[in-house]
């Protein structure tokens, strides 16, 4: 049965903000989410057992405990949740996956921040735009995050999450950043963290490690980026709406 299995009832959260890190263009969401988990030594909080996810066991170096491919991490001090993913969502399972996740957000009064990369030739610091559902527009305005400069659509699993949030009236934010379509893009992930996630979640984010380890991060995540290019239906992205008309 699809559900979110919380392992840490001792962690107290009050209407938390969540940063979503599903893999997509430039792996911007995954890089940003992984950085938050590492930078704040966040606690493994819950396992995501939703339809559309592969039944695989994930393990890490120097840790004998296996975990599911999609997990939630928590930081009580910052009232923060992060959705960390080590595997893409099946294209045929995105609707069920989105319903499972967003339903849990509703039950636990979670405000999600969804992350997408928009393929672009960047010039300087990547531009970041915001879209919203529910009462999210006021949050974007307060954080000085601009709306998009063109019509477009968020695709893939993250698009399904935004769609489901809009359908049920959940307050959420969707952030879109210019990103490299072919390679992991730590620079775009850094722009998301500094320009939008930090003011929206109301805490400072140290992103120096993303700059110092950019090459290492790129190499570590290049294989996943290559796999997503081969099957773009599993990959989240934001693209001009003209591509779908």
Automatic annotation (TrEMBL):
It comes from the Archaea. Residues 222-245 are annotated as: Disordered. Residues 228-238 have a biased composition (Polar residues). This is 3-isopropylmalate dehydratase. Coiled coil: none annotated. Gene3D superfamilies: PAC-like subunit. It comes from Haloarcula japonica (strain ATCC 49778 / DSM 6131 / JCM 7785 / NBRC 101032 / NCIMB 13157 / TR-1). It holds the Pfam family PAC2.
